[in-house]
Write a structure and sequence with these properties.
- This protein is of the alpha/beta class and about 650 residues long.
- The protein contains 19 helices and 34 strands.
- It has two domains: about 1-495, ANL, N-terminal domain (Rossmann fold, 3-Layer(aba) Sandwich), CATH 3.40.50.12780; about 515-635, GMP Synthetase, Chain A, domain 3 (2-Layer Sandwich), CATH 3.30.300.30.
- The strands form eleven sheets. The chain has a seven-stranded mixed β-sheet with strand order 5-4-17-16-18-19-20, sandwiched between helices. It has a five-stranded parallel β-sheet with strand order 7-6-8-11-12. It has a four-stranded antiparallel β-sheet with strand order 23-24-26-27.
- The longest helix has 17 residues, at about 85-105.
- The chain starts with a helix and ends with a strand.
- Bound molecules: coenzyme A and adenosine monophosphate (AMP).
- It comes from Microbacterium profundi.
Length: about 650
């Protein structure tokens, strides 16, 4: 562990020297003289530096003679399209689209909301915003109009860039009616919508003209045809590159703000040292540009490194089969792949013997990186034995932008431990705190740390969030005040005697469905919109493929008569309409009463333990223990339950 330990220790002991050195991988317009500058109990990275992200991702590679290297390989398993873009071609497309945005009034610091499927236009639009110093906010295509409207209202973009639609297995998703609905809900904010017309999907800018007062609908191709290419605009290192909304504990999502310079430096470091990817290498990240993984390791990371990135539109299974990932790896000679454990579990379910993996198909693959949710040791072993490549489970969050823990294979290929997300990355000083804030780090046998809240000593390294859009208070309240001096990750876990970190689950009401982070609060808000629902609780229960799934428990208003089937149908469609299909919400259980403490707090943890068949203790603070019997009976009657509800009640606990 010597090489790794030396690097990590130096990053904590000499952050200034370590990160200024790492900053050498970036082309700055004005080179920073300082790395870390404290601002009260907050901080800033490279504040005196200026740069342009699009220049660093494209122009500098072209200018250094690599314009003919392939930057982007678009592979659609949905409609069979395959397109390659060299660095020179991508720069050309980005510069023209940046010019088009500029002609629509977009300038440095403006927000542009992107609601796009997994096509090259998504990458082009992101980089075009970055070229102008405008701030993009990408919204995942699986979110409904209400979620889109919430983000428009918060980020206040003047321009929305969208497409006629996306493709899901067996159906097309028409975006324009959703965009229109969102604009009607978030009235008077957006002045222009640019529409990329996708073949085979109904809807176009012309058809939308005049549908929303004050909004001009422009066709992408026509706009670009008359646009002059725009040069990169240098911005301050601290200038926001993007806002990415993520679920918190409340119904309203948090706009995570990412700076430009710190992010560029952190990603460059991670590409070389964590992913071991440089110019000439190919990385395949099977995520979506709507998530942080897509931002960092489909778009910015690989392009900063001068590597080739694969933009994959499709699913791990069914498009057309469970062999598609391996074909992509083979055909594009992928060196590093990144996916969510859910994707592996989905493949394993249909192809447990890996029959779709032909001999030598993944010979180019050196490492499969997994993140987004807990990687269960069984799936780890299946992938490890079946693929015979290095498997790296690594842990990070939308907020951190790059891994908190990983095996830095470019520094030292440490031995993985199934169930662990390995060791802290540079700048991450991980501590385990008890509920009262007591430091448990190193208090276990042989210097291990018992399970508790995982926190990160501030300052956080470059690349991590610099705020929550529009609310300094929310930023502090969400992350910095629970444990002063630390960033609270919201995850619980422990550290073993070798310093390996085990992330076991969330400490808040955030759930993780197929690697997608969802707020139970936002789902509950939707369930209570139904006129029959008096009270509700949404919890994340075990799901064999998706890790967790959202399950709703509702009580009905007095004198309401509605069948379970009808209520379920209506609640499912309400969630689909307001949150989107991605919530994959299907489980509804009607209860007479919800289990609560005497102060009215719903006992979600106990509910989850019962639903998942775990042993549990009846909390001493429970208002009426017999309510749990009702829950057990209802769960036993539920046709969708995965686990046998646990009926083992032991004595009251203080928990
Ligand atoms: N636009 C519109 N709808 C979308 C969408 C998008 N971009 N992405 C997903 N959806 C829809 C799906 O079509 C599905 O709709 P349905 O209820 O009508 O079938 C619903 O949202 C749920 O989707 P999903 O969670 O993807 O479930 P699935 O059953 O379609 O697929 C998996 C299961 C395992 C294949 C899929 O969850 C998967 O690929 N997971 C990996 C996720 C991942 O890579 N996460 C990375 C985050 S870092
Ligand atoms: P997101 O912000 O959507 O990337 O979700 C971040 C959350 O996903 C983390 O706070 C964890 O709860 C969970 N997570 C991500 N990666 C891992 C991992 N490798 N192991 C366990 N949980 C993870």
């Amino acid at each position: 562990m010597t090489a790794y330990r030396d690097v990590w220790r130096r990053s904590l002991e000499d952050p200034e020297g370590f990160w200024l050195e790492a900053a050498g991988a970036i082309n700055w317009t004005t080179a920073p003289r300082h790395a870390l500058v404290p601002r009260g109990d907050e901080w800033s990275w490279f504040p005196d530096g200026t740069l342009n992200m699009s220049f660093n991702c494209l122009d500098r590679h072209v200018e250094s003679g690599h314009g003919d290297h392939i930057a982007l390989r678009y592979h659609s398993a949905m409609n069979g399209t395959k397109e390659d873009y060299t660095y020179a071609e991508l720069r050309e497309r980005v510069a023209h689209f940046a010019g088009a945005l500029r002609s629509s009034g977009v300038t440095t610091g403006d927000r542009v909301l992107l609601y796009l499927p997994m096509t090259p236009e998504a990458v082009i639009a992101m980089l075009a915003c970055a070229r102008l110093g405008a701030i993009h906010s990408v919204v995942f295509g699986g979110f409904a109009a209400t979620e889109l409207a919430v983000r428009i209202t918060d980020a206040r973009p003047s321009v929305v860039v969208t497409a006629s639609g996306g493709m899901e297995p067996g159906r097309v998703v028409e975006y324009l009616p959703l965009v229109r609905k969102a604009l009607e809900a978030a009235e008077g904010i957006v002045s222009t919508v640019v529409v990329c017309d996708r073949e085979g999907i109904p809807g176009s800018a012309d058809e939308m003209a005049g549908t929303v007062p004050g909004v001009a609908w422009l066709d992408w191709d026509r706009l670009v045809a008359t646009a002059e290419p725009a040069p990169p605009v240098p911005v301050a290192s601290s200038a926001p590159l993007y806002i990415l909304y993520t679920s918190g504990t409340t119904g309203s999502p948090k706009g995570v703000v990412r700076d430009t310079g710190g992010y560029a430096v952190a990603l460059s470091w991670a590409m070389r040292n964590v992913y071991d990817i440089g110019a000439g290498d190919t990385m395949f990240t099977a995520s979506d540009v709507g998530w942080v993984v897509g931002h960092s390791f489909i778009v910015y990371g690989p392009l900063l490194a001068g590597a080739t990135t694969v933009l994959f539109e499709g699913k791990p299974v069914g498009t057309p089969d469970a062999g598609e990932f391996w074909r992509v790896v083979h055909d594009y000679r992928v060196k590093a792949m990144f996916a969510a454990p859910t994707a592996l579990r989905a493949i394993r379910r249909v192809d447990p013997e890996l029959r779709q993996l032909s001999k030598g198909a993944v010979a180019s693959l050196e490492t499969l990186f997994l993140a987004g949710e807990r990687l269960d040791p069984e799936t780890w072993r299946w992938a490890n034995d079946g693929l015979r490549v290095r498997i790296v489970d690594h842990w990070w969050q939308t907020e951190t932008g790059w891994p908190i823990c990983a095996i830095p294979v470019g520094v030292e290929a440490l031995q993985p431990k199934p169930g662990s997300t390995a060791v802290p990355m540079p700048g991450y000083d991980i501590r385990i705190l008890g509920t009262g804030g007591d430091d448990l780090t190193g208090t276990g046998p042989r210097g291990s740390s018992p399970e508790g809240n995982i926190v990160l000593r501030t300052p956080l390294p470059p690349g991590a969030l610099t705020g929550v859009w529009g609310s300094a208070e929310r930023y502090r309240h969400s992350y910095l005040t629970a444990f002063p001096g630390y960033y609270s990750t919201g995850d619980a876990g422990y550290i073993d005697e070798d310093g390996y970190v085990f992330v076991m689950g969330r400490t808040d009401d955030v759930i993780n469905v197929a690697g997608h982070r969802l707020s139970t609060g936002s789902l509950e808000e939707v369930l209570t919109m139904h006129p029959a629902v008096a009270e509700c609780a949404v919890i994340g229960i075990y799901d064999e493929i998706k890790g967790q799934r959202a399950a709703g428990f509702v009580t009905l208003k007095a004198h309401v008569a509605i069948s379970q089937e009808r209520l379920q149908r209506e609640l499912v469609s309400l969630v689909r309409e307001h949150v989107g299909p991605i919530a994959a919400f299907r489980d509804v259980t009607i209860l007479d009463r919800l289990p609560k403490t005497r102060t009215g707090k719903i006992l979600r943890k106990t509910m989850r333990q019962i639903a998942d068949g775990e042993t549990y203790k009846v909390p001493a603070t429970i208002e009426d223990p017999t309510v749990l019997d009702g829950l057990i009976v209802a769960l036993k009657a539920s046709p969708r339950r995965a686990s046998e509800p646990s009926a083992m009640l032991s004595g009251p606990s203080a928990g």
